[in-house]
Amino acid sequence: MIANRQSLPRLCIVSGGGEHADMKGSALRQASALGHSGAVMYQLREKGLLGGRLYELACRLKPLLARSGSLLQINDRADIAQASGADGVHLPESSCPAVTIRKAFPLLLAGQSVHSVRAAREAEKSGIHYLLFGPVFPTPSKERFGPPQGLENLEKVCRTVSIPVYALGGVTPERALACIECGAWGVAALAPFLDAGSLPVTVESYRSYLPT
Fold it and tell me: What is 9-207's CATH number, 2.120.10.10, 3.20.20.70, 3.30.70.3290, 3.10.580.10?
């Protein structure tokens, strides 16, 4: 069953993207640690993994995340999301048309990354359930794409659509409140959660600035 707005966690954690290279099981360690941290949305974003390995990893992550009531979103692969029993799929802005994915996989929770008001409007019209918007603040991984969007553009997107918006890009715990004040439903991040050992503490730090 697709989650409603109120049941969507306020915090989204994006996986590190290096499962194909380091073979260290970072995502599994994160999922295990989250069992003691309360519900989050966990986006498995591993572009380097072949379909078979991505499926196997998703199958292993799902029960670990379920312990905390967390949602598992698979980046760009709706087929693997459905086959593995994940909660949903998260689409890049340049992915297969969202309306096509929604028709083919109507029971999946569907999110999409957007970088403009226009893209946000189009995503909402297609039936997308939530958006990731950014980068809001400066972040090294996005410098080559130009300057950050800023809080002003985040607020414009949040006012334009009625579906939940997560702010992404350089969002520290201290910056999370400013994003919420602009209308964001929640915040998303990758780098702050890479250390599974400190993950529960980091999650709690973010939660201290987010609505309950």
Answer: 3.20.20.70
H or E stretch at 67: none
Q: Which two tokens stand for residue 55?
A: 């499926």
Query: What is the residue-wise DSSP string for 145-184?
Result: G-S--HHHHHHHHHHH-SS-EEEESS--HHHHHHHHHTT-
Q: Which residues contact 65 (CB under 8 A, 6 or more apart)?
A: 31, 34, 35, 42, 71, 72
What pTM did the predictor assign? 0.94
pLDDT tens figures, 90-127: 999 999 999 999 999 999 999 999 999 999 999 999 99
Residue 187: count of CB within 10 angstroms of its CB: 28
